[in-house]
Amino acid sequence: SIVGDKTMAFLLMDKEMYTGMSDLQPASPTIDRGIALQKMIHFITMALGGDGYLNFMGNEFGHPEWIDFPREGNNWSYDKCRRQWSLADIDHLRYKYMNAFDQAMNALDDKFSFLSSSKQIVSDMNEEKKIIVFERGDLVFVFNFHPSKTYDGYKVGCDLPGKYKVALDSDALMFGGHGRV
Question: Residue 1 domain-assigned?
């Protein structure tokens, strides 16, 4: 995010973030898809981004609108220079799901050390199905960016033979997803 621009979450969900983040009501399609994409963008950035992961301004959800630090162009205003990390601690707000998923991503690396692995193999990029499959370390990552389709039995090739199980699922109920995996 550039200073004065919208955050990733606000680009995805825009003004619906003001009224649609309550878990006390059903999520609108914009909020539902925005949160799903936010989690997936964070995860694919972390998993393919190199040796480390930095949740930098604009990528996080503690700035629900846009970021603008005091500068001459905004008359040295502090109005948009605030992080609202407390949003993730309010139990009835959906920010808790994004925060929980970020914590789970970091825990996954703590357990499997994939960020420090030099092994990165992209094995499938299917534009029509909106699927990206890659290996990083001993993990296989499967991302489905399709807005409406899920794929049962989608086959992926792996470097190492064996049985695999889901280690982290962005669509899990505990992360505000629909539990389709």
Answer: no
Backbone angles phi, psi at 91, to 5 degrees: -60, -30
Residue with tokens 């996080």: 60
Domain count, the chain: 1
Nearest Cα neighbor of 96 from 14, 169, 41, 177 is 177
In 62-87, which positions are buried (b, 16+ CB within 10 angstroms) versus exposed (e)?
Answer: bbbbbbbeeeeeeeeeeeeeeeeeeb
In Å, how far from its chain's centre is CA 33? 11
Domain limits at 159?
8-175
Give dist(CA 29, CA 135) in Å, integer: 31
Q: Which DSSP category does 76 fall into? A: T
Give just the sign of the alpha carbon dihedral 155, 138, 174, 90: negative
pLDDT (tens digit per residue) in 25-68: 999 999 999 999 999 998 998 998 876 666 655 456 655 555 66
Opening angle at CA 36, ends 40 and 61, nearest 5:
80
- For 57, the token pair is 């301004």
